Amino acid sequence: MKVIKWFGAAVALLFLFCALSNAFRYPATGTPTHSGRALTDQERNTLQQAMINLAVPPPDTLPVVDAKGDTHWVSCHDAGLDLLEQLADGHIEAETLKKGENSTLPDSSPSPQADQINMDPQLIAWAGAPVRTAAWMRQLEACLLHEWWHKNQDTAALRNNDDREEVATYNLMAAYYCSTATPPGNPDDEFTKNAKKWAEYSKPRAPAQQGHLVRPIFPVRVGRHFMWLMHDSVAVGGSDSLQSLSPDDDVMHNFAFSPFRASDITFIEAPPFLPPEHTLAVVFGGFPASGTARILLLDIFDGQVIAPVWNHDFGPPIYLPMYFYTAMQSPEDEQWYVLDTLNHQILRMSDTMFGDGVPDEITGVFASAFWPGMEPLMNARGLEPATHQFFGAGVLVLEEDARIHCAFYPHDMNHFIVDTDGDLQADLLLVLPLYQFLAVTPVIREPQPWQGDNAVMLFGSWEHDIAVWATDPTGEMMFELLGQVHMAPAVDMMCPLSRPLEAGEYIMPYDLQTEKYSTPEQVIDPAPQSLVITYNPAEETLEFWWDAVIDAEYYQFWQSGDGSNWIPFDLPIFADGFESETTCQWSFPMPEENRKMFRVTAGR
Predict the structure, then answer these.
(1) What angle do CA 408, 412, 416 make, to 5 degrees?
(2) Mean pLDDT across the stretch 155-176?
(3) Domains plus CATH for the chain?
(4) What is the dihedral sign for C-alpha 320, 325, 328, 334?
(5) Strand pairing of 541-547 and 521-522?
């Protein structure tokens, strides 16, 4: 039996879900664990087919409405080609720690070129099964579009609460579902309607609207269904529900909780007291009017609630009024930590009665906003288990939402609380960047390596040692160690090289701790290729045509009379001034001097 902790979170966080048996093994404290694995040949072929389906119309273009109501147009053809390129570059892996999750990790550079995507391996398997339903492939295609859009969102803008990233991505999924529905354009398609609901519930809300209850909830895979909590937007009244949908039959199932308010959910697979293939849903929430918190257990089978199994209530007269907003289980000691947003505290809870893994007794207060130094807990909205390289196991306290977004930003700052003396109470609160809890596949960041470069920019795991090797195109043969750097104090580091790079050779970053590596990058020859110069007698101009150079920021034009002494024509021309990304064209008046030799160079 294993516990699946529901995340709406990031690609490579060191967050491990707790197990009630030996199904999962957890690493020692402080040891980073990567959440992705390399794709199998079958998984790669299935993803490739999904990307080809996206690249070949219909649909051609789709409208995307962001959180501000602005409409953007997306080319499915371009998205499919971008994803195929990323697949070829080795920047797509299979998710291993989170069930039913797809996620994106930006490398913090302005370009999405090296961003990582992790895809749910079960979804890939269903989409690629021999007796495949078109619905599962359609679901995979929509999820790929979702993560592709995350890659192309601007990191700085996304951290503004007025422009939540999930709004646009779910609107994009809704547009894709609608365009591929039966019949095409059917707005009543179940997936179309529910993607629109997820977009609506992802919209930012003012603190007064959030209260201690309202937040968006994202889907998790349970068996062959996707299940999620849907919140009513009314802070005290209203009715929440547990909903499920399967691509096999497009049938929606709904279980209403009213008057109970549900805020968080955990699924336990195959508990011993339920029939085979049944799942136990553990729902956290309460009754705001009376101040009673509740943990509700539900028997789930085939995406439907069969019956409530049990509930544990906590409130007056034994306890103060409280509300259970979200919960997490520590992989270190299987202790539950529950956020009570009425009292601004984190409670410790244990399974003391039935041995079913469900918390049923409050064993103490782990942290309170009223303790000295713990004041940031007043704004807490989420908890995640985390292990730090130096401070060990603790709890990340989130303020924006109860879950870290699936588009994860390494430089976001969060509060990390730790019990340093073993008395079961937090006594240290730190403000740390989230990259200190990441383990990522190292990549060569932009700018891409050019001939003559003596250093390359790397993105890799914090406090890891990253080596740069000269390799063959596959990375299987390592020819020469060119350099090595320790990733501190940040995750973006310049690695000096032992010699200048040569055009056409391949180089690859390699993590010495995790032995993870990305697809080798070919060193670019910065000399413009296919240069053609013509004379236009009507205009008395020289016209230059050449192939664009990757990562070039500007081009300089030169003239010479003898081929040894070169004089610049004019000021450099910036690369972003050309209409085409692949071919460049420029013209100059014919020089009066007797100079008959011309050339173009790229620079950055």
Answers:
(1) 105
(2) 71
(3) 34-204 (no CATH), 227-440 (no CATH), 443-522 (2.60.40.3580), 532-603 (2.60.40)
(4) positive
(5) unpaired
Which 3 state secondary structure label does DSSP give 123? helix
Q: 207: pLDDT confidence band, cut at 50, 70 and 90?
A: very low
Eight-class DSSP state of 445: P
Distance CA 511, CA 443 (A): 10
What does the pLDDT average to over 28-54?
A: 77
- Please write down the long-range contacts of 193-196, taking CB distance under 8 Å and 24 or more positions apart: 194/243, 194/245, 194/252, 195/142, 195/170, 195/171, 196/170, 196/171
For residue range 245-285, what is the model confidence (pLDDT) as tens digits? 888 777 788 899 888 888 888 888 888 889 999 999 999 99
Q: What distances in angstroms separate CA 170 from CA 67, 108, 124, 174, 509, one per listed residue?
A: 11, 23, 20, 6, 34
CA dist 116 to 76, 123, 559, Å? 20, 18, 44
**How does DSSP assign 274-335, residue by residue?**
S-TT-EEEEEEEEETTTTEEEEEEEEEETTEEEEEEEEEEE-TTTS----EEEEEE-TTT--
DSSP, collapsed to helix, strand or coil, labels residue 52 as helix
**Is residue 201 classed as helix, strand or coil in its secondary structure?**
helix
Cis amide prior to 183 (ω within 30 degrees): yes
Indicate the SS3 state at residue 521. strand
SS3 196: helix
Tell me: pLDDT of 573 over 70.
Answer: yes
The answer to whether 250 and 191 have CB atoms below 8 angstroms apart is yes
Q: Retrieve residue 197's tokens.
A: 């609901």
Q: Which residues pair with 347 in a beta bridge?
A: 338, 365
Residue 177, CB-side half-sphere exposure with 13 Å CA sphere: 24
Q: What's phi and psi for 555, nearest 5 deg?
A: -125, 140
For 392-439, the pLDDT digits (tens) are 889 999 876 666 556 667 787 889 999 999 999 999 999 998 888 877
> Which residues neighbour 601 within 8 Å (Cβ) at sequence distance 6 or greater?
526, 527, 528, 555, 556, 558
Across the beta sheet with 583-589, the strand order is 532-536, 541-547, 583-589
pTM of model > 0.90? no
User: What is d(CA 373, CA 418) in angstroms, rounded to the nearest whole number?
Assistant: 12
pLDDT digits (tens, 9 = 90+) for 529-556: 888 888 888 888 888 888 888 888 888 8
CA-based nearest residue to 465, from 488, 441, 436, 497: 488
Report the pLDDT value the prediction gives residue 570, as an integer from 0 to 100: 77
Please state, as a whole number, how many other Cβ atoms lie within 10 Å of the Cβ of residue 537.
7
The reported pLDDT for the residue numbered 114 is: 72
Inter-helix orientation angle 76-88/41-55, to 10°: 160
**Do residues 198 and 190 make contact, with C-beta atoms less than 8 angstroms apart?**
no
Write a three-state SS string for 128-190. CCCCCCHHHHHHHHHHHHHHHHHHCCCHHHHCCCCCCHHHHHHHHHHHHHHHCCCCCCCCCCH
What are the φ and ψ backbone dihedral angles of 589, each rounded to 5 degrees? -60, 145
601: which strand partners? 556
Question: What is the end-to-end Cα distance of the chain in Å, rounded?
Answer: 56
Cα–Cα distance measured from residue 163 to residue 67, given in angstroms and rounded to the nearest whole number? 5
Residue 46 three-state SS: helix
